[in-house]
Amino acid sequence: MLDAFDPVVLARIQFAFTVSFHFIFPSFSIGLASYLMVLEALWLKTGNAIYANLYRYWLKIFAIAFAMGVVSGIVMSYQFGTNWSVFSDKAGAVIGPLMAYEVLTAFFLEAGFLGVMLFGINKVGKGLHFAATCAVAIGTFISAFWILSANSWMQTPVGYEIAANGQFVPGPSWAAIIFNPSFPYRLVHTVIAAYLTTALVVGGVGAWHLLRDSANRGARTMFSMAMWMAALVAPIQILAGDMHGLNTLEHQPAKVMAMEGHYQSHPHGAPLILFGIPNSAEQRVDMAVELPKMSSLILKHDPDAPLAGLDTVPADEHPPVGIVFWSFRIMVGIGFAIFALGLLSLVARVRGRLYDWPLLHRLAILLGPAGFVAVIAGWVTTEVGRQPYVVYGLLRTVDAASPLAAPAVGASLLAFIIVYFAVFGVGVWYILKLMAKPPQRGESAEPAAGPIRSAGITPAPAVEGERP
How far apart are CA 79 and CA 85, in angstroms? Predict the structure, then answer.
């Protein structure tokens, strides 16, 4: 049955499935690690036990999300050798070291201090435990740094040389490869997205518990912190996204043409197509809802500036317009919804209704998972928009795949789908179960009284009247 499918298409679907499933967890753990660092810093500074309570509450959730992110990420690296061996051979000299640096600098740092962070809160000093939390948070950022550097090089390849055997090899400067033209914009945009994704989850959980008990101090604190994040950081993300889009227009114009739905060039100002149905066969967007000249204003800061369309790009280099067009709109739409939620929370804060406005709380719950949808839509826009290339302008995706038959790729794809939904579905269910419980009141993060015994049997306390 699988013989009728294209093995390259199946390999792309497999990688898209695994990377989308994987990125759900890092996009949460990156932000949550920093949130835990802030909570512990506030506890150490103020001595307020509510921050310690919230730290313990979210630490359990972080541990599960982090573990699932690591396990799901390991699978992806194997696919470079199984499904994309030609890519590994051609670009391995550049991509391999970047991914190795991620393991050596980030994963080792996270793994080394994660145990102290999880199990040492009552066993080591406050300063050392806070240092462990900071190390894990910094490690998650370093991990994002190297992975995004590798991905960005594939989008905007520079600093390489082509060897006699056709392989991409590093040039004289690794800095040119690491800090390639799209990397700074992609790093800022992705990390902020992770922070906002975490803020939406924290805010949604806080809102859930406020609807049941508006006096819960833990729910109040987490909801307030999350809404500050949405109100202050969402506008920054919109600005970062705009700058990232301008960078993409410079280096990957065909991707922006697909995002905007511009099949035809516009010499006197291009409209902004809000909605429509891309029709690649007829090279137009059907039933388009447009704002005249707004696309030129956004992309060129001049309403009359000309914008080239896909009619200037060879047909065999067009990305799949329909997918990119709609994934981009999903991402942007959710971004503005987060911005609106932040503004609404400011109104509630000024009116003194932040903790007892059910409409705001229900909206926060509704947007709780929206960050995950936005980051996946953003990655779809980024990755599908660079097609038909895996290394932009240099190596086509069809030429990067392993010489495998469709049944072999299809069988592993079905196995991944079954195992992922079974194993990680249970993990997500357990995370939701933990979130459903409110933060415990009166929980203390102070070390237990008396010495900590590392071995042997702890004697039971003597019963009154019994001789010791």
Answer: 8
pLDDT tens digits along 123-140: 888 899 999 999 999 999
- Given a contact cutoff of 8 angstroms between Cβ atoms, the answer to whether 443 and 44 are in contact is no
Average pLDDT over residues 214-240: 93
Where along the chain do its domains lie?
Answer: 189-404
CA–CA gap between residue 260 and residue 325 (Å, rounded) = 6
Give per-residue burial for 17-34: e unless 16+ CB within 10 Å, then b: ebbbbbbbbbbbbbbbbb
Summarize pLDDT for 398-424 with one digit per residue, the tens. 999 998 888 888 888 898 889 888 888
Residues with Cβ within 8 Å of residue 103, at least 6 apart in sequence:
none
Nearest Cα neighbor of 64 from 437, 430, 369, 422 is: 430
Task: Using alpha carbons, select from 330, 337, 186, 328 the residue that is nearest to residue 261.
Answer: 328
With 90 as the cut, is the pLDDT of residue 354 above it? yes
Handedness of CA 119, 125, 126, 130 (dihedral sign): negative
Q: What token pair was written down for 174?
A: 């690794």
Distance CA 394, CA 396 (A): 7
- Predicted confidence at residue 1, as pLDDT, reads 63
CB 309 within 8 A of CB 285: no
- Per DSSP (E only), the strands in 191-254 are none
Bin 442: left if φ > 0, else alpha if -120 < ψ < 50, else beta.
left
Statement: residue 379 has pLDDT above 50: yes
pLDDT over 90 (residue 103): no
Nearest-angstrom CA–CA distance, 365 and 353: 17
Is the pLDDT confidence value at 87 over 70? yes
**Global pTM?**
0.88
Q: Where are the beta strands (DSSP E) in 44-135?
A: none
Q: Is the dihedral of CA 17, 140, 255, 183 positive or negative?
A: negative
